[in-house]
UniProtKB/TrEMBL annotation:
Entries under CDD domains matching the protein: TM_ABC_iron-siderophores_like
Protein name: ABC-3 protein
Family from the record: Belongs to the ABC-3 integral membrane protein family.
One Gene Ontology term from the biological process aspect of the record: transmembrane transport
Localization annotation: Membrane
Pfam families documented for this protein: ABC-3
GO cellular component entries: ATP-binding cassette (ABC) transporter complex
Bilayer topology annotation: Multi-pass membrane protein
PANTHER family assigned: ABC-TRANSPORTER METAL-BINDING PROTEIN, METAL TRANSPORT SYSTEM MEMBRANE PROTEIN TM_0125-RELATED
Main location: membrane
Keywords: Membrane, Transmembrane, Transmembrane helix
Taxonomic placement: Archaea, Methanobacteriati, Methanobacteriota, Stenosarchaea group, Halobacteria
Length: 339
C-alpha cells in the first residue's frame, strides 16, 4: 500500500471513529431527554440546556438551547449513519428503487394514522403506525418478488404506485377532518420530529447497526453472488427479507426530516459518492457514512442559516458531495472488490 493510500485509510478510520462517537452521543442525548423526569438525569438535562444557551450566545444562534432542536439534530445524525449503511447493500444489488417504494408505503401508514386519529381521537404515535405499515409493505414486496414470474422490479413498481394511491385515497376521504395534514411528512420538517419519533429513531439505529454487524458476511455474500449463496445453502430468502425490513424501518425514521419525496436520496446519493472513490465494499460503507454525515451536518447548517427546508438542504449537500466525488475520481466507472 502506498503512503497516500495508507494515510487515506487512517483518515477514513478516524472519520468513522468520530462518527461512531457522535452517534453514541446523540443516542445518549435522546436517552437523557427521555428520562429527564428522573432527578439525577434531570439535573444533567438542565446542565445541557445551560451549555446549549452558552453555545447559542457565542455562535449568535437560537438552536442549541431548545430540546426540540436537540431531537431534530440527533435524529439527523443517526439518519446519516443508518441510511447509507443500508443503502450500500441496496445500491450494489441494484435495488435503489425499493427505498422510494417503502417511503410511499410509509406515507400510506401516516395517512391511515391521521385518519384513525381524527375519527377515534386516538393519540398514539403516527410513526409507529407508519412503522407497522412500512414493515408489512416490505414483507409484501418480498412475497411478491418470491412468488411471481415478473421481472424483479415489477413488484416494487406495483407496491410504489399502489401504496401512494392508498395514501391519496385515505387523505381524500379524511379531507375536512381535524388533523388531516400530511404536508410536513411529504416534504419533511424538523417540526415533525416528536420526542417519541426521536426515541424511535434511536432504537432503530441501534438495532440496524447491530444486525448489520452481526450479518455482515452473509449480506455481503448475497449482495455479490446470490446464486452462489443459494448453492452454499445460505437462507437467501431470510436475508433478503431482513434487508428489506431494515430498509423499511430506516425509511420510517428518516422520513420525519427528509419527507416521503426525498427520503430515498439518503439511501442512494451518499453511497453513489462513496462508490466513486472506494476500492472495496468495506471502504464504500465507510465513505458512504462519512458522506452521509457531511450531508446531514451541512444540510442543517444551510437550513438554519438561510431559513430553508431541512430535507431539501440535506439532499442538495449530498448531491454536491457526489459531484465532487465524481470530479475527484480517477475512474469513469466504479470497480469495487468484494471485501
Amino acid at each position: 500500500m502506498t503512503t497516500n493510500g495508507s494515510l487515506r485509510r487512517r483518515l477514513e478510520h478516524v472519520g468513522i471513529a468520530v462518527t461512531a462517537v457522535l452517534a453514541v452521543a446523540m443516542v445518549v442525548l435522546l436517552a437523557i431527554d427521555a428520562l429527564r423526569e428522573v432527578p439525577v438525569v434531570g439535573t444533567l438535562y438542565e446542565q445541557l440546556r445551560i451549555a446549549g444557551w452558552w453555545a447559542d450566545h457565542y455562535l449568535g444562534t437560537s438552536v442549541f438551547y431548545h430540546p426540540f432542536m436537540w431531537r431534530s439534530i440527533a435524529t439527523g445524525i443517526l439518519i446519516g449513519v443508518v441510511a447509507p449503511l443500508v443503502g450500500t447493500y441496496l445500491v450494489h444489488r441494484e435495488m435503489a428503487l425499493i427505498g422510494e417504494t417503502l417511503a410511499h408505503t410509509a406515507f400510506a401508514g401516516v395517512a391511515v394514522g391521521f385518519l384513525v386519529s381524527s375519527i377515534t381521537g386516538w393519540s398514539g404515535s403516527l410513526m409507529l403506525v407508519a412503522l407497522v405499515v412500512g414493515v408489512l409493505g416490505a414483507l409484501a414486496v418480498q412475497w411478491l418478488a418470491e412468488r411471481t414470474d415478473t421481472y424483479g422490479d415489477v413488484p416494487i413498481a406495483i407496491m410504489l404506485t399502489g401504496s401512494f394511491a392508498v395514501g391519496t385515497l385515505v387523505i381524500s376521504y379524511g379531507r375536512g377532518m381535524s388533523g388531516i395534514n400530511v404536508q410536513d411528512f411529504i416534504f419533511g420538517s424538523i417540526s415533525v420530529v416528536t420526542p417519541s419519533g426521536a426515541r424511535l429513531m434511536a432504537v432503530i439505529s441501534v438495532v440496524v447497526v447491530a444486525v448489520t454487524v452481526a450479518t455482515y458476511k452473509q449480506l455481503l455474500f448475497i449482495t455479490f453472488d446470490e446464486q452462489a449463496a443459494r448453492v452454499a445453502r445460505l437462507n437467501v430468502t431470510w436475508y433478503n427479507t431482513l434487508l428489506i425490513v431494515m430498509t423499511a424501518v430506516v425509511i420510517v425514521g428518516a422520513m420525519q426530516i427528509l419527507g416521503v419525496i426525498l427520503v430515498a436520496a439518503m439511501l442512494v446519493v451518499p453511497v453513489a459518492a462513496g462508490t466513486q472513490l472506494a476500492q472495496s465494499f468495506r471502504e464504500t460503507l465507510y465513505l458512504s457514512i462519512l458522506f452521509g454525515q457531511v450531508a446531514v451536518i451541512g444540510g442543517f447548517v444551510l437550513s438554519i442559516s438561510q431559513s430553508l427546508p431541512t430535507g431539501g438542504s440535506i439532499v442538495v449537500v449530498a448531491i454536491a458531495c457526489y459531484l465532487l466525488a465524481v470530479f475527484a475520481s480517477s475512474r469513469s466507472s466504479p470497480a469495487i472488490s468484494m471485501h
